[in-house]
């Protein structure tokens, strides 16, 4: 359905409203013309009068079509006020022509209408219309003088021309100034109205009795009320009970401040909970300010109210989260701490009090040198430098961490062992900005470890004594066997070291090496030292030394599997060894190393029943049967020691 005014175009609607007002003036003027005709005040014929009225109505219909289609927006004067005034001036001058003696009265009416129209025009438009009116009136007087000279009153008509010639330009200047002023005011009001209508914050004004005098339309969004509804409400109805006392107290402070000649309070920002139309509430940030007149008298209170519900919800969640983490940090036995990149503490959990006796405030003022030893500090700085170097790499692990064990100084002068696990804190660009650490007391564990180490050392020494006794006994019975065991132990340890095995494993191999033939104590001495080839029965007895050695050592307490190494040192990778025919991974790595060292030393050394075969023959044997009788890796390592690194049996 077509409406009189366009939707969504406020300025065009205002133009059409002004046009309709002007059209109303045309209707009134037409009615006046017909009344004048009826009273005989004009000699114009009814046909001319009606034609003029009809033409006027047609022109106005065309003007409305121009407005309604928006064509007028393309013109310099989109309100078309000048065009309406030109048409009105022409129509009035026609009536003036036929008015004869009533010309002055009609001209007076025209002047009133014209002045009203002037205040809608610009200066150039005013001057144009003034000149147009003077020329029109002069033409009317000239025609009247020629056709009806008896109706001419020279004095009055000349006076009328002079008035039009001088008064109208004056009106033009005044009207132009008023128009520009009105335009500025209108633009300013329009801008303010546009801002207040579209801003999400609610702007309101209170008088000194705390009654609303203005509130922006955005209150509809914030509170659900129409502005007209809020203006009728008491101010106290705005605030929820939680904020009512604070809001009213502050507003009364503003009122009292307004009475003082000194500016003690000009603005204040509050967080207030307000009521909504649906019964719910929401939190706002409200800034209150004083409005003063030129005499510095406080006359109004200005408020700007903003919805901060989301921020309050976020703050609530943050507080809850902070409370949870603080609960954890305050009750956990481990000490949680953070430092900056200069290793200065930035946070420390209260559990530090239980760890070393210091309070958080005391430790925050201390340096690392106050609570750790110089050796520990040096280690810390070394690790820190290593981590900073890693930070420069492109493929660094952002989640990596390091663990450090050190002695920590307590407030009472004692020392405890602590374990600290730390990682970097990072910003949004993953740049390291600090350190997050977790520290725990491991004194009990360290004491247990040290006690275990002491026990291990005592066991090792005890085992060493036992082994020395066994070796001495074997040496006294068979000097050759004792020397063989020592050389095998040295070679086995060299192979193990070259393979990169741990030092503890190497030490176990040495222990096993020097007693790997201990089982020969159970073999008659005449067989061990027999200078001729052994019989099958005698060799069978010799082969039993591996089992006998196991039986001797199986109940000896040791951190290494000495008994099993001795038991397996004659086993072979393909299962052809003795005494249990073990294969591959069934054989301990230490026993595989011992097997290779035993073969090399035996072949390269002199035996009672044969001379030395030489180191070359021994190495050829290992190379020939690696992967078959002997472990691949162990064999290659042994060959490398002799051929590349110049190892010699001593």
Secondary-structure map:
Elements: H1 10-39, H2 46-69, H3 81-99, H4 103-118, H5 123-147, H6 154-198, E1 202-206, E2 212-215, H7 219-223, H8 227-231, H9 241-259, E3 267-275, E4 281-292, E5 298-307, H10 309-331, E6 335-339, E7 345-348, H11 352-356, H12 360-364, H13 374-391, E8 402-409, E9 415-426, E10 432-441, H14 443-477, H15 479-498, H16 503-513, H17 525-528, H18 536-543, H19 545-553, H20 562-568, H21 589-604, H22 615-625, H23 632-643
Antiparallel strand pairs: 1-2, 1-5, 3-4, 4-5, 6-7, 6-10, 8-9, 9-10
Helix pairs in contact: 1-2, 1-3, 2-3, 3-4, 3-5, 4-6, 5-6, 14-15, 15-16, 15-21, 15-23, 16-20, 19-20, 20-21, 21-22
Straight-line distance between termini? 118 Å
What fraction, in percent, of the residue positions are helical? 55-70%
Low-confidence stretches: none
What's the total number of strands?
10
Summarize this, please?
With 650 residues, the protein is of the alpha+beta class.
Report on the structure:
The protein is of the alpha+beta class and 650 residues long. The protein is built from 23 helices and ten strands. The protein has helices spanning 10-39, 46-69, 81-99, 103-118, 123-147, 154-198, 219-223, 227-231, 241-259, 309-331, 352-356, 360-364, 374-391, 443-477, 479-498, 503-513, 525-528, 536-543, 545-553, 562-568, 589-604, 615-625, 632-643, and strands at residues 202-206, 212-215, 267-275, 281-292, 298-307, 335-339, 345-348, 402-409, 415-426, 432-441. The strands form two sheets. It has a five-stranded antiparallel β-sheet, with helices on both faces. A hairpin with a 5-residue loop joins strand 3 (267-275) and strand 4 (281-292). Helix 16 packs across helix 20 (562-568) and helix 19 packs antiparallel against helix 20. It is elongated, with a radius of gyration of 57 Å. The N and C termini lie far apart (118 Å).
């Amino acid at each position: 359905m077509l409406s009189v005014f366009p939707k969504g175009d406020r300025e065009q609607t205002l133009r059409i409203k002004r046009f309709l007002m002007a059209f109303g003036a045309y209707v009134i003027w037409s009615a006046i013309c017909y009344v004048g005709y009826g009273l005989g005040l004009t000699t114009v014929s009814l046909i001319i009068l009606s034609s003029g009225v009809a033409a006027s109505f047609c022109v106005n219909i065309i003007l409305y079509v121009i407005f309604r289609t928006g064509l007028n927006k393309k013109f310099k004067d989109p309100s078309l006020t000048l065009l309406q005034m030109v048409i009105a001036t022409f129509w009035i001058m026609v009536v003036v022509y036929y008015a004869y003696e009533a010309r002055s009265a009609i001209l007076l009416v025209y002047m009133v209408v014209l002045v009203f129209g002037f205040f809608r025009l610009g200066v150039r438009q005013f001057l144009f219309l003034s000149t147009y009116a003077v020329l029109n009136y002069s033409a009317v007087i000239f025609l009247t003088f020629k056709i009806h000279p008896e109706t001419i009153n020279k004095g009055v008509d000349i006076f009328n021309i002079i008035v039009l010639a001088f008064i109208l330009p004056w009106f033009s200047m005044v009207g132009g100034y008023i128009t520009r002023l009105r335009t500025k005011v209108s633009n300013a009001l329009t801008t303010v109205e546009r801002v207040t209508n579209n801003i999400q914050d609610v702007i309101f004004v209170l008088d000194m009795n705390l009654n609303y005098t203005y509130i922006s339309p955005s209150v509809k969004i914030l509170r659900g009320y129409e502005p007209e509804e809020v203006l009728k409400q008491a101010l106290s109805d705005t605030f929820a009970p939680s904020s009512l006392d604070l809001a009213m107290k502050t507003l009364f402070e503003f009122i009292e401040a307004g009475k003082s000649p000194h500016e003690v309070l000009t603005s204040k920002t509050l967080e207030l909970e307000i009521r909504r139309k649906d019964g719910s509430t929401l939190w706002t940030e409200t800034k209150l300010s004083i409005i003063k007149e030129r005499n510095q008298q406080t006359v109004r209170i200005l408020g700007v109210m903003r919805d901060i519900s989301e921020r309050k919800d976020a703050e609530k969640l943050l507080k809850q989260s902070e409370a949870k983490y603080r609960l954890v940090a305050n009750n956990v036995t481990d000490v949680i701490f953070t430092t900056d990149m200069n290793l200065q503490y930035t946070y420390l959990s209260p559990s530090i009090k239980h760890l070393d006796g210091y309070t958080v405030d005391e430790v925050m003022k201390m340096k690392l040198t106050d609570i750790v030893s110089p050796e520990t500090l040096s280690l810390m700085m070394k690790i820190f430098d290593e981590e900073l170097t890693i930070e420069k790499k492109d493929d660094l692990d952002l989640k990596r961490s390091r663990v450090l064990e050190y002695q920590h100084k307590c407030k009472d002068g004692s020392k405890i062992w602590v374990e600290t696990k730390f990682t970097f804190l990072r910003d949004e660009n993953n740049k390291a900005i600090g350190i997050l650490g977790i520290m725990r007391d491991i004194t009990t564990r360290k004491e247990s470890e040290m006690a275990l180490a002491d026990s291990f050392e005592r066991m090792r020494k005890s085992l060493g004594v036992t082994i020395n006794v066994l070796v001495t006994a074997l040496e006294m019975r068979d000097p050759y066997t004792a020397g063989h065991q020592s050389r095998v132990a040295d070679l086995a340890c060299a192979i193990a070291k070259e393979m990169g095995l741990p030092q503890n494993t190497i030490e176990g191999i040495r222990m096993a090496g020097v007693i790997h033939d201990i089982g020969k104590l159970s073999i008659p001495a005449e067989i061990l030292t027999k200078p001729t080839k052994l019989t099958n029965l005698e060799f069978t007895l010799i082969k039993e030394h591996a089992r006998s050695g196991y039986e001797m050592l199986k109940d000896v307490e040791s951190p290494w599997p000495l008994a099993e190494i001795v038991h397996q040192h004659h086993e072979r990778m393909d299962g052809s060894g003795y005494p249990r025919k073990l294969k591959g991974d069934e054989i301990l790595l230490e026993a595989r190393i011992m097997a290779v060292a035993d073969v090399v030393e035996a072949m390269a050394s002199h035996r009672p029943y044969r001379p030395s075969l030489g180191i070359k023959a021994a190495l050829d044997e290992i190379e020939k049967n690696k992967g078959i009788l002997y472990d691949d890796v162990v064999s290659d390592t042994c060959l490398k020691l002799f051929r590349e690194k110049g190892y010699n049996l001593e």
